Amino acid sequence: MSCPASLFLVCWQEAHQAAPSTRLDAENIEFPVSVKQTIAQALANSDGEVARQTLEQLLETSRQLTQKARLALLLLIMREIDHTFAPIHPRAFASSGSGQLANWLLMANEARRCTGVYAAHESLRLIPRGPLTRAQRGELSSYADTLEDRFAHITAVPAQLQLSGTRVDLSFSPIVDEDPLLGVHAGDDQPGRERVCVVPVAEKLGDLSLQPRQRGQRRYLEIGPSPDFQPAQVLLSALKRVPNVDIGLAPEFVMSSKAHEEVVASLHSSPTACRLLLAGTANTIDHDDGLPWNEAVVTNHFGVALWRQRKLWPSMLDEARAKTYNIMDMPGVGAYHEHNASGSCIQVVDIDSIGRCVILICQDVVNAMAEDLLRCLQPDWVFVPILDRGFAVRSWFVDRARSLSTVSKARLVGVCSTALPRSDGQEIYSLTIVCAADGDIPGAPCNATAFKSAEGSPGVAVHHFGVDKWDRIANMVEKRDDLIH
Question: How many angstroms separate the Cα of 16 from the Cα of each of 145, 146, 152, 154?
Fold first, then answer.
């Protein structure tokens, strides 16, 4: 659609090529009131094509100016387009409604509800600036000039990222609304006060199966629930113990494809009080050259599958760690790799009642791509299902999440089973949450961190945002868990 929304992306491409200092210096240039009036009148025009043509003509005349003056005009137009999107940003639109808005703006909003994006141009997508349920990062949050932090209501994001040189597509889903049957209904409390419930599912050594496999000279591990273990029953039974759950989560590899089907079927017939459920990950029935994908399934409380996410970067287990799990003397050479194919896409899901969600499965959060993802998307939630020995106070996930919280206000929620053996005597947690406090989490340190152990049988760990206190790592046992999963 030709309108100011797509023009913003064209302007972004040009402005992104300018040096940060050049962009800052360009904003010292003041334009006559008549220029600003022309921009305002164009954006108020209901015909998006006419509005864009007017702004393009203005930009065309700027070619007679200095390069700095043209950049200044470009940034001015972008800022005014950004302001125009304020009434339809999810933070405002839910309460204010459409009002008297230009038709092209309403069409852009409808396009986002159907496709997940306001507009597209070449390799860029225009989306609401995240997070969707809390205030955005300030313009100076990076302590330097960035386009990503410059605008309050919209941002341009790439359609692809790079994971160690491999292309990963960003797939933007249609908006998940508050439909009580097909969407995610509104919670009992306001956004920002969600109850998150983690079910580790696999809590004893015999609950998981780690079966060695060999492909050529390479050694692999096929991981999943033990044949006699009933993970679907454990997950559903645990969820019934906790009322009014906003987000339920289970870890990596604790489910099977059959167990996922059982969870969905059970929720169809007997819905839970859990609004959104990430029902752990499992090996898929589908294969890529003999390797299944490691896939998470997310449903609403009726068991309607909302989206699926495949692990992008299968992990490995070195020989020393393998011996602690009684895996040894396997033919082949080197480390043990997960017996899984690599996914190639990240699902970006905006949920009206919860915010923007992405899933990074275990090792995916470690890759440098994760920082690029969080910086451009600014999600409300990053769910990280993990296979490890549970969380310790000082663990690889806490270190990584604290680093990522410097580029995003996302809530990074790590969930882990506790079935794998641990002998270092540290207290073990199934739920770890890390997010940037940034002034909107009263009483929290700079990096707000919460640790929760599973309690009861089956075990559950619950954190209530806005109610439960945050933990200060400095006041807890500082014994680092530096063994790589």
Answer: 11, 9, 17, 15
pTM: 0.94
Q: What is the pLDDT of residues 181-207, one digit of tens each?
A: 999 999 888 888 999 999 999 999 899
Q: Could you tell me which residue, 140 or 25, shows the higher pLDDT? A: 25
* Contact in structure between 178 and 352 (CB atoms under 8 Å): yes
Distance between CA atoms of 458 and 199, rounded to whole angstroms? 8
* Euclidean distance between CA atoms 157 and 24, whole angstroms: 21
User: Which helix or strand (DSSP H or E) is residue 36 part of?
Assistant: helix 33-44
Buried b (16+ CB within 10 A) or exposed e, 213-223: beeeeebbbbb
Two tokens, residue 307: 């989206």
CB 276, CB 300: distance < 8 Å: yes
Q: Give the CA-trace dihedral at 344, 346, 347, 352, to 10 degrees.
A: 180
Number of H-type helices and E-type strands within the chain: 13, 23
Residues 6+ apart with CB under 8 A from 30: none
